[in-house]
């Protein structure tokens, strides 16, 4: 299992240089470390910010489960999408609003073919709102299928 929370820094995270803004570290409420966030007031509507997790040593012909915590807080804050590098340009996961300010868990199954996924990208698209933020934390990759809820 690969634990890619931002406080530990064991994973290879890269800011995309072709996007409109960067994700930035934000302190957790409880003070134990931080998460990555895009505040709602950054950039203009429809602007994108991408944070890429580089994956190494994934075995071909096997399954993995990617779990992560996410939060979309605020009115019309925007969209959060997840892309896998070897798939076409369609997101494998997308969320465009939260019912409340709470953190939720996202799950994505990654099935390796002979060509392995070498990165996962978290993309934030700026919405119309001026308050709130989009946040991501506790990104964990485990071998095998995702457990049922």
Automatic annotation (TrEMBL):
Tell me which PROSITE patterns the record gives: MAM_2 (PS50060)
Native species of this protein?
Halcyon senegalensis
Q: What is this protein called?
A: EGFL6 protein
GO terms under cellular component: membrane
Source organism's superkingdom? Answer: Eukaryota
Which residues are in the MAM domain?
A: 2-148
